[in-house]
């Protein structure tokens, strides 16, 4: 029994970067069969985690296909290079969102994070909108120079953001006012 558990855990921890997770709560997932050969080559050559323990690699946490382009969300620590451009995390980990054309070239890459542990990114494409949900710790600076989150909060804050599918530019980013309700059991009220 112990050996079986270790084997199963070993398989889970050594997921191929081409086994991509479903987007948000949908049951659909992106599989190897849905990707072009060029996309597969780019992913295999890219800085993607082969296991949860990989340092300086992107751990893909969510993926979806939009017009045959693969859009991924994930988290990374340290520095990594995608399409010849170096990206550095500002804290323990930062959120990364990127789009990969069917021809295997990266359309855009966006990084979001601050000095803390920013993670748990999920994406969802719905009626022309690319929505990102994730967790941040402390404050993060958005590209437009505004600050999102609170340095006074001790713990994770849930965020919601929208990105333009074609360019990856941020349409908006804000702290989810209901995000803490999900993770805080002390706020739960109900009948017994």
Topology:
Layout: H1 2-13, H2 37-45, E1 59-66, E2 69-76, E3 79-82, E4 85-88, E5 94-100, E6 106-112, E7 119-126, E8 129-137, E9 139-141, E10 147-149, E11 156-163, E12 170-175, H3 179-183
Antiparallel strand pairs: 1-2, 2-5, 3-4, 5-6, 7-8, 8-11, 9-10, 11-12
**Main beta sheet strand tally, sense and closure:** 4 strands, antiparallel
- Strand order, main sheet: write it out: 1-2-5-6
| Helix run count | 3
* Radius of gyration computed on alpha carbons: 17 Å
Oligomeric description of these chains: single chain
Fraction in helix: 10-25%
Q: Summarize model confidence as the mean pLDDT.
A: 80
State the separation between the terminal residues, measured CA to CA.
38 Å
Could you spell the SSE succession in H and E letters?
A: HHEEEEEEEEEEEEH
General shape: globular
Low-pLDDT stretches? 2-19, 21-27, 185-192
Number of strands: 12
Structural class, please? mainly beta
Which percent band covers the strand fraction?
A: 35-45%
Short description:
The chain has helices at 2-13, 37-45, 179-183; strands at residues 59-66, 69-76, 79-82, 85-88, 94-100, 106-112, 119-126, 129-137, 139-141, 147-149, 156-163, 170-175. It has 192 residues and is mostly beta strands.
What would you note in describing this structure?
This protein is mainly β. The strands form four sheets. It has a four-stranded antiparallel β-sheet with strand order 1-2-5-6, with no helix packed on it. Helices cover 14% and strands 39% of the residues. The termini are far apart. Strand 3 (79-82) and strand 4 form a beta hairpin. Mean pLDDT is 80; it is low at 2-19, 21-27 and 185-192.
